[in-house]
Design a protein that fits this description.
Layout lengths: L2 H19 L3 E7 L2 H16 L9 E7 L2 H12 L5 E4 L12 E6 L5 H7 L11 E8 H13 L11 H35 L2 H9 L10 H8 L2 H9 L2 H10 L8 H13 L2 H4 L4 H11 L2
Parallel strand pairs: 2-5
Antiparallel strand pairs: 1-2, 3-4, 4-5
């Protein structure tokens, strides 16, 4: 296998996890070229040759998410198992600056022999069998792309221009505020949908995930219209708990409006009448998912 093929296999594993829970995301990846490895050895080679460190980002992935809450969620999920290293910046109270969430994970065991074989021979002893994952929001990703190409790669040209650097960093404050404002808009819209009895829109604007269909089934819609207590519990269900549940269970399941409601009912609402609305096929699918 080529390094590019190994990267694509890891990307597919991650995409399967994120698609399973419906997260809105973009996933990018790259493999360091021999030229890039040579540059890194010139820059930090003493550390690598001494054995103090190893190159950990021959394969680099970036997950770009739509909402700030999802960055924290996914960072926690990836940190729970097989974490090699992490660079996490806590947001400052008095200053705004780019926040890093960079995680180093081990190459999946079944891919390690192929990874080792695909490395350039002269650099293989200095490379760890790991890959790096950077997790960001869409707005911060845009800022990082501009900053990386036009400031980070030419730092010397910015010497003596501290006011411009400060202004560029200050844009992070605007972007963070915009992100949280956007999240708040959808939360408030979901509340308004709930108050108006617009149940499909309420669930979509609350969950902010990719749905597999367009509405509840007629039978489930009729049940919800006659059970305002269940609707209230659905509105107050914890979105992050739902998403973490979806990430932690491995079996695929279609994210229909009905299935989302049935899953939330299984681990939160626990309404017996709603449980009886699961047809045999749906019940079997839910049972398989929750035991996976």
């Amino acid at each position: 296998m080529l390094l590019k093929e190994i990267k694509e296999a890891i990307e597919q594993q991650i995409a399967d996890d994120l698609n399973r829970c419906g997260l809105m995301f973009r996933l990018f990846g790259r493999v360091k070229t021999t030229r890039s490895l040579a540059h890194k050895m010139e820059w930090k080679g003493d550390n690598y040759r001494s054995g103090k460190k190893k190159i950990q980002d021959v394969i680099g992935l970036r997950i770009v998410l739509y909402f700030p809450d999802d960055v924290e969620l996914l960072g926690f999920f990836f940190s729970c198992k097989d974490l090699v290293d992490a660079s996490v910046d806590a947001p400052g109270v008095d200053t705004f600056r780019p926040q890093r969430l960079n995680l180093v994970k081990p190459i999946p065991e079944e891919l390690v022999p192929a990874f080792r074989a695909a490395l350039p021979e002269e650099y293989a002893p200095f490379v760890d069998a790991t890959y790096e994952v950077q997790i960001r929001t869409i707005f911060s990703e845009g800022w990082h792309e501009v900053e990386h190409d036009l400031r980070y790669k030419c730092k010397d040209e910015w010497n003596g221009y501290d006011s411009y650097s400060r202004a560029l960093n200050g844009l992070i404050a605007t972007l963070e505020t915009t992100e949280w404002s956007m999240s708040s808009i959808f939360r408030e819209m979901s509340r308004s949908n709930y108050e108006r009895g617009e149940l499909r829109a309420m669930l979509r604007n609350k969950m902010l995930i990719r749905m597999a269909d367009n509405d509840f089934s007629p039978l489930v819609s009729q049940f919800l219209m006659s059970h305002p207590d269940v609707v209230e519990q659905l509105f107050h269900a914890d979105r992050l708990v739902f998403l973490m549940t979806m990430l932690n269970h491995r079996a695929p399941i279609s994210l229909t409006y009905d299935n989302i409601l049935f899953l939330i009912n299984r681990f939160d609402i626990m309404n017996q009448e709603l449980l009886q609305l699961e047809d045999p096929s749906t019940r079997a699918s839910l049972d398989t998912f929750l035991t996976s």
